[in-house]
């Protein structure tokens, strides 16, 4: 996919290494689904403990997201991402070698902190090093990396399914962690961060290196104007400013809807769902899950191609409608029951289509919109709050899913997610305006006008 401008080499390299953060986010959240089938048996896990193993990384991620902005403002994006690569390595090794459940949980918690930091800093670093005109595609490149990471985790899960080697599944996450850390050693600091810390000569040198030309005066001038407009260091209190209320409602609202519409019950528990639906062997359940992963990647590519022409709002609305239909079908499939094989098929197809509709809408559009709708001076903090909400609700859905299935029933649980998705549709319909092809200043001005007095 062509994303760079005049200097595809310098910039593509930066993008590729930085997107490893997205890959690790995807790999380390996805890998638990396959591993859980074996961890459950080895440690004799009750449903509550299983939810904890699946969810502890998400709690770590919410924590990591809370600190990512502040740490990277202080120490620089590059250094914090580099350390995050090492955090992934340590967490993966601890989890893979854990002799006890408690150590496994600690390892996953450490990985989670890495995921949380990466989920925020990868798009931030990409956006800050990207030329303005390709920023949108680049932020979505991060989502593509996430879905590729999930797919790779499923394939690794499949490869090790026969032997039940869950330790290898978790341990392999150390490899991209090492590449990320080493890669960040050679990558430049974000020119925006350098300029913000008064290191203007270095900022100019980095811009020249990234763009492969010494003709960067215009972009550099824009960078400095931006900073002058900010004029102060951001603080959390800025989020209380009435001008930020509407973006905050939209950002946090979409963060919550991205999770309570149930995507990660599929991403993390797909093999378990497939087994319940009649695909009884662990390998066929994991293979069907890999199919879901392929649909996720493919539809994300479609989304990236359409996002600047069809627009964010249309993709969101169509995606949400499709999700409602698929969730209802899924619920019906479980409600009717019937022959195990038929049920297995309905489940597999509805799940794949559901993930496809998520991937063209709510998946990429949420991360893109939160990088677009906040006024510049609170963008980091605003994105931080939305990211924390996203991980917090991810955790909530993950730890309640198995309980809900037990108490409400499988069909009713999916009907509940369908109802939340109807809510997401109404929310999007009434609050989310199109942002394609508009400058961030125009978006900001429009949101200010719509602000209730
Ligand atoms: C979401 C993740 C989800 C992934 C699935 C991301 O946008 O934030 O929670 O697992 O998409 O592709």
Keywords:
453 residues, binds beta-D-glucopyranose, Growth Hormone, Chain: A, 19 helices, mainly alpha
Account of the protein in words:
By secondary structure, the chain is mostly helical. The protein has one domain: MFS general substrate transporter like domains (Growth Hormone, Chain: A, Up-down Bundle). The protein contains 19 helices and no strands. The chain starts with 7 loop residues before the first helix and ends with a helix. The N terminus is likely disordered. Beta-D-glucopyranose (BGC) binds next to α5, α12, α16 and α17.
- Low-confidence spans: pLDDT under 50, at least 5 residues? 1-8
CATH architectural arrangement: Up-down Bundle
What oligomeric state best describes the polypeptide chains here? single chain
| Structure summary, number of beta strands | 0
What's the pLDDT, averaged over the residues?
A: 85
- What is the SS-derived class? mainly alpha
Element-by-element helix/strand order: HHHHHHHHHHHHHHHHHHH
Distance between the termini: 44 Å
Q: Helix count, per DSSP?
A: 19
- Percent range of helical residues: over 70%
């Amino acid at each position: 996919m062509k994303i760079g401008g005049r200097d595809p080499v310098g910039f593509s390299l930066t993008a590729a290494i930085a997107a490893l953060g997205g890959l690790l986010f995807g790999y380390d959240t996805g890998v638990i689904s396959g591993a859980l089938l074996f961890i459950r048996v080895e440690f004799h896990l009750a449903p509550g403990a299983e939810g904890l193993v699946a969810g502890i990384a998400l709690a770590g991620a919410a924590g990591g997201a809370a600190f990512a902005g502040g740490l990277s403002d202080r120490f620089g994006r590059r250094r914090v991402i580099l350390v995050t690569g090492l955090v992934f390595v340590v967490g993966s090794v601890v989890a893979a070698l854990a002799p006890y459940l408690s150590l496994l949980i600690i390892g996953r918690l450490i990985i989670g902190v890495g995921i949380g930091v990466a989920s925020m800093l990868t798009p931030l670093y990409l956006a800050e090093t990207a030329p303005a005109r390709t920023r949108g595609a680049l932020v979505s490149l991060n989502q593509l990396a996430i879905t590729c990471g999930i797919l790779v985790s499923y394939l690794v899960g499949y490869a090790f399914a026969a032997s039940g080697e869950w330790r290898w599944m978790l341990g392999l996450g150390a490899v991209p962690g090492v590449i990320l850390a080493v890669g960040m050693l050679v990558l430049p600091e974000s020119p925006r961060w350098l300029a913000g810390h008064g290191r203007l000569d270095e900022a100019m040198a980095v811009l020249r290196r990234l763009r492969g030309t010494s003709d960067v005066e215009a972009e550099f001038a824009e960078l400095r104007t931006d900073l002058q407009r900010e004029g102060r260091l951001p603080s959390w209190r800025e989020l209380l400013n009435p001008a930020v209320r509407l973006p905050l409602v939209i950002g946090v609202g979409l963060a919550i809807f991205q999770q309570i519409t149930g995507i990660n019950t599929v991403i993390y528990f797909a093999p378990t769902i497939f087994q319940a639906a009649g695909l009884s062997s662990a390998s066929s359940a994991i293979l069907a899950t890999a199919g879901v992963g392929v649909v996720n990647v493919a539809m994300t590519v479609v989304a990236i191609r359409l996002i600047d022409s069809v627009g964010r709002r249309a993709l969101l609305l169509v995606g949400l409608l499709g999700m409602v239909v698929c969730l209802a079908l899924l619920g019906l499939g479980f409600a009717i029951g019937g022959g195990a094989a038929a049920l297995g098929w309905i489940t597999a197809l509805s799940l794949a289509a559901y993930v496809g509709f998520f991937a063209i809408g709510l998946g990429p559009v949420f991360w893109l919109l939160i990088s677009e709708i906040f006024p510049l001076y609170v963008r980091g903090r605003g994105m931080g709050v939305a990211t924390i909400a996203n991980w917090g609700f991810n955790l909530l859905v993950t730890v309640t899913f198995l309980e809900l299935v037990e108490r409400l029933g499988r069909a009713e649980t999916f009907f509940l997610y369908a109802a939340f998705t109807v809510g997401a549709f109404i929310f999007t319909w009434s609050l989310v305006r199109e942002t394609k092809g508009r400058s961030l200043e125009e978006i900001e001005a429009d949101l200010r006008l719509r602000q209730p007095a």
